[in-house]
Amino acid sequence: MSAPGKPDVPGSSDRSFLGDPARWNPEELLVAALSQCHMLWYLGLAAAAGVVVVDYRDEPTGTMSEHPGGAGEFTEVVLAPVVTVADGSMAARAERLHTRAHEKCFIARSVNFPVRHRPTVRVA
């Protein structure tokens, strides 16, 4: 995949379809897009709410259903962000912001399967 002014993203099919596991496949890119969209909305909302995020990591997973003949679809994506905040007084707000970030994410609002959240909030 290439676009003017951006680095190329070498793509491939999934390993189960004999793809190159060192390259991004479309399914991974969709899960990554959902994760990134949520993170960017979350960080913006956190800054506006005075929640100081010192670390943000996510381990998103996608579940797919495959049908005879090779067709299939996602049945859900689960985002599992681990957010570290600067102070314990921010933890409850930090937790609640995940709901607002989900409501704002254009990509999550556009897919036809559930995008669930299992956030963890830690204090630095």
UniProtKB/TrEMBL annotation:
Record bears the keyword Transmembrane: yes
Gene3D superfamilies: 3.30.300.20
Key word Mitochondrion present: no
Region annotation Disordered: where it falls in the sequence: 1-20
Keywords, alphabetical: Membrane, Transmembrane, Transmembrane helix
Annotated InterPro entries: KH_dom-like_a/b (IPR015946), OsmC/Ohr_fam (IPR003718), OsmC/Ohrsf (IPR036102), OsmC_Ohr_Peroxiredoxin (IPR052707)
Transmembrane segment boundaries: 39-56
Identification of the protein by name: Redox protein
Organism: Rhodococcus wratislaviensis (Tsukamurella wratislaviensis)
